[in-house]
Amino acid sequence: MGKPNPASRRAALEAQRQAALASRRRGRMIGGLVGALCGLLLAAGLAWWWNVRNQPEPVAVGSQVAVSHASNQGRGITVAKTPTGKPTLVVYEDYQCPWCKVAHDGMGPQIDALVAKGEIGVEVRTLDMLDAGLNNDASLRAATAAACADVDGTHTKYRDTVFANQPQKEGTGYTDQQLRQDFAASAGVKDLTAFQTCYDQRQTHDAVQKVLDAARDADRDTSTPQYWAADEKGELKNQLDLKTLMGQRNPTEEELLAAIKAAA
To answer: Which family does it belong to (predicted)?
Structure first.
């Protein structure tokens, strides 16, 4: 048997070396992929845990009560009944919305004056659209509390109180202490025990949800604030241009009434 060819032996050794290198590279690649996958799974797990940890505890919904001034098949709450032949001002608002507070503060006195003179009716449709963006449920809880105040007969004062105490920093929200105790006291809620039971057991849940569903089902933008002119049946006609109406200063009673009539 002849001696091995040195060239063939070197080729065989080189082939073995290349195979070993390739094997190590595959090992490192697989290890990297496994590490990356584990990292993704860990991140996903942590994200899931954080979301679950920060979800509000489910609240038991008690027996429902009728909202005293529900309007238009439950699409809102009547703040002031519309006189015969006069337009209705329909307000879409969110209690966490800073511009809703600006509009409420800037036009509230004029609206009250027009109501007192029998010039308009007013309907409020309260939304909770900011809850998702702000990662809380303060808008929904405030809407629930305001509906409970309507059952008590103090909706308008309660609504004013919530806006007056809106946090300066958007997203701070409202605490249960504020909504069920502090604001109720400031608004002069007549039956505090019944109001707090209504709030704690979400007894206006169905009424509030009906308003939200009606707004979401409408084929239009549901951002807030929105001020609309409507007929006596509450059917929306045209939206007021708040940017123009409040661009330089708050409108006078006459200017506001003219804008409502023009949109009706």
So the answer is: Belongs to the thioredoxin family. DsbA subfamily.
pLDDT tens per residue, range 48-97: 334 433 444 445 588 999 999 999 889 999 999 999 999 999 999 999 99
Return the closest-CA partner of residue 111 out of 126, 124, 96, 128. Answer: 124
User: How far apart are alpha carbons 262 and 240 in whole angstroms?
Assistant: 9
Domain residue spans of the chain: 1-50, 70-263
Question: Considering the domain 70-263, what is its CATH architecture?
Answer: 3-Layer(aba) Sandwich (3.40)
Q: Which of 193, 63, 192, 215 is nearest to 139 (CA)?
A: 215
The span from the CA of 72 to the CA of 66, in Å, is 14
Lowest mean pLDDT among 15-19, 30-34, 136-140: 30-34
Q: Which runs of consecutive H residues, i.e. helices, occur in the chain?
A: 6-54, 98-116, 130-134, 138-152, 155-164, 176-177, 183-187, 192-200, 205-217, 242-245, 253-263
* Element of type H or E holding 77: strand 76-80
The one-character DSSP state at 168 is: S
Of the two residues 29 and 122, the one the predictor is more confident about is 122
